[in-house]
Here is the input.
Amino acid sequence: MTDRARLETTGERPALRVERRLAHSPERVWRAITEPAELARWFPASVAVDLRPGGAIKFTFEGEEAPTLGEVLEADEPRVFAFTWNDDVLRWEITPEKDGSRLLFTHTFGRGEPAIARVAAGRTAAGWDSCLGALTALLDGEEYEQPKDWVGPIEAYIEEFGLADGEVLETADGKVIRFRHDLIWKPLDEVWALLTPERAAIGSGTVTREEPPRVLEFSLPDGGIVRWEFSHSELEGTMVELTRTVPSGLDEVVPEALRKWRKRLKEFFAAAHGA
Here is the structure.
């Protein structure tokens, strides 16, 4: 058993799965994951719950007046607790094991296109690592110190899950290299400012479209087009999609372009987060 989150697929939806061995009975673990007073010590929001299938569950984050609403899907004490959070599904399965328990936690991403939903998996996995660390400390009667470095664990999961890898799409006019990369919750104006060196490095290329703070597009000497497009929402955070078109007959440039833009996006992410 590993404490590291795994990125899998449930149906067509991306899902994180984490297993933890806990030195406590299923009954004790059940209380820690269902009772509001216990949840308040490790869960990322305060929770009010009607603990029955179909019951309401409310999440209130610090600084927010209106709670986010969900629904209890399963409440089989002390084995299974599952509920919706926005369009995601969180499921906790507790199994007796020797003198303790095995906890299997699954977070299934329910919103939007599956490929885009996957983009946030690195950030989400790092967040659950911290929450589950706090849960373990609570059960063990210990204090939990929040990690000081968030960027490193997120970067590690992005690499581990293959989320920094680009894809090559066939088109009628050649190929398109596409990357989708998480920028967490950075404001668009801040990430847009990081493109100033990019514009300076265009060289013999020409800016063909510029719509601050969302779109920058420029041509390349080989006839290809590079496009940076940023998006942001309160639920999804900030993401960049970078595409580079490769005209027909220039397949030999694809491997180097994949390497170059993968490296550039890694540097861009680090710069956005002060790393």
